[in-house]
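Lab notebook: predicted structure, single chain.

Context: the supervisor wants predicted structures on file for every construct in the current expression panel, including those that have not yet been purified. This is the next one on the list. No modifications to the sequence; it matches the entry in the shared construct table.
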Amino acid sequence: DFASPLRIGSSITIANVFLPDILHAFSASFATPVSVGVDTARHNTERLLANEIDAALIEGAVTDSRLVARPFSSFTIAAVCAPSYPGPRSVSPTALMRETLLLREKGSSVRELFDSAMMLHGLVAKPAWTSVDSQALVAAAKSGLGVSILPEVLIERELAAGELKRVHIRGMQLKNINYTVYHKD
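Prediction complete. Output recorded below exactly as produced.
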């Protein structure tokens, strides 16, 4: 028998943290082949609407009324820096904007969440670094180049090893919700 593959798009953090376990569980119950593409939430949404993929695992809110989104997990977003970084370990949102910021690119769910939270305080981030690769930001933060905003699930090892330290943003907690998304038709 030939089965058409299930075409899945996944956001980067979900692909790094959740997708392997999800696919192992799926393949234990179904013989359907799976094709995966890892991209930003925005691109995965565009691919869903163009019928290039059947479902997407996306971080952050989905606002297009043509799509159905069901939450399946969440993770905390943390501000982190190297232990040697000279900045304070507890800052107001305004003070955080004066730090050297190492951020994901515009359009990524982590960046959208961070920018929205800052906007509520009338602030706009002007990052020294932007990257589509979270691991590049981890390396930059570990080397003491600035403060990065990253999913805690991606930096648990570095935090446990003392290679990164949390920077508490007073009055703010950032959490991203993950969704399974598909076209309503």
